[in-house]
Amino acid sequence: MSFLDRIAECNAHDPSAYRALVCAGHSVGAVRHRMAERLRDFPAIFSVSDERVVLSDALTDGDQRSAAIERVVRVLEADGIVTGRRDEAYPVLVNWGDQPIFRIERAAAPHFGIRSYGVHMTGYVPSPDGPKIWVARRAKTKPTFPGMLDNTVAGGQPVGLGLHDNMVKECWEEAGIPAEIARRAICTGAITYRMDGEDGLKPDVQFCFDLELPADFVPRNTDGEIDEFFWWPWQKVAEVVAETREFKFNCNLVLIDFFVRHGLIDPGRPDYLDIVAGLRR
Questions:
Q1: Domain edges within the chain
Q2: pTM for this prediction
Q3: Mapping DSSP to helix (H, G, I), strand (E, B) and coil, where does residue 173 land?
Q4: Phi and psi angles of residue 190, each rounded to the nearest 5 degrees, phi first
Q5: Considering the domain 16-112, what is its CATH architecture?
Q6: DSSP β-bridge partners for residue 18
Q7: Secondary structure of the chain: what % helix, strand, coil (to 5)?
Q8: Pairing assessment for the beta strands 117-125 and 205-212 based on DSSP bridges
Q9: Can you give the pLDDT of all 281 residues of the chain as single tens digits?
Q10: 3-11+116-278 and 16-112, same CATH topology
């Protein structure tokens, strides 16, 4: 296995399995064929053809669309199709930086192929042998990817909160990092991928942050979502990423990006350009 294997796993998808989800003339998602047929049961909200699922033009603003989608999601939850409600609204955007065209419950976003956004932070301490990285293990009680390894801090990007403010919030909740330290985190770019998941398509964007932590700082979880932290030399982190599937799938890309940016992957290796290109699909 290799870094390219992790990248390929995050970009395994079959476009023929989906129909475009269209709102106000914009393609904003992708719906699996079985889900598209289920949405025929809501003719006042969706117009369904063999190629597209179109949100009704009678829903003329974000609030109306959001309310209509929420009614559908509640029915899908009652049917056991959508599970694991977070009560967290994700924005549905035509372009990053736009006002949301509507909002959708986080747990439902993959079923509609909505592009989700998140923040992922790599907390590290410099050393003569290269950075030592704080790695988190997700709580075994989490509804998604329980017990897997994770970035130092990570979270979804909800409606109504800026990226840096969200990063500061997540730093405290997940790792007990106080705001005065968390505000030093630097956004270094974003990784993107398009992946078939159990619940649907994940065409997601994760904004990457680096945070150099004090050598004597030890993270501690405050919200029950992390069971433990490990302080590993980057070489061990790289080995686990390349040789196992112990990390949550998208965390691998965030860490590979960190290795590239910090010059820890030899640019002379034959797969270097494929690695760099694969992080932004």
A1: 3-11+116-278, 16-112
A2: 0.94
A3: helix
A4: -150, 150
A5: 2-Layer Sandwich (3.30)
A6: 32
A7: 30, 30, 40
A8: parallel
A9: 699 999 999 999 999 999 999 999 999 999 999 999 999 999 999 999 999 999 999 999 999 999 999 999 999 999 999 999 989 999 999 999 999 999 999 999 999 999 999 999 999 999 999 999 999 999 999 988 999 999 999 999 998 899 999 999 999 999 999 999 999 999 999 999 999 999 999 999 999 999 999 999 999 999 999 999 999 999 999 999 999 999 999 999 999 999 999 999 999 999 999 999 999 98
A10: no
Tokens of 142: 């989490």
DSSP 119: E
Q: What token pair was written down for 12?
A: 């395994």
Residue 24 near residue 14, CB atoms below 8 Å: no
Backbone angles phi and psi of 237, in degrees to 5: -60, -45
CB 123 within 8 A of CB 152: yes
Question: Which long-range contacts does 128-132 make (Cβ < 8 Å, 24+ apart)?
Answer: 129/233, 129/235, 130/233, 130/234, 130/235, 130/262, 130/264, 131/234, 131/262, 131/264, 132/231, 132/232, 132/233, 132/234
Contact call for residues 205 and 190 (beta carbons, < 8 A) = yes
Distance from C-alpha of 41 to C-alpha of 84, rounded to nearest angstrom: 23
* CATH classification code of 3-11+116-278: 3.90.79.10
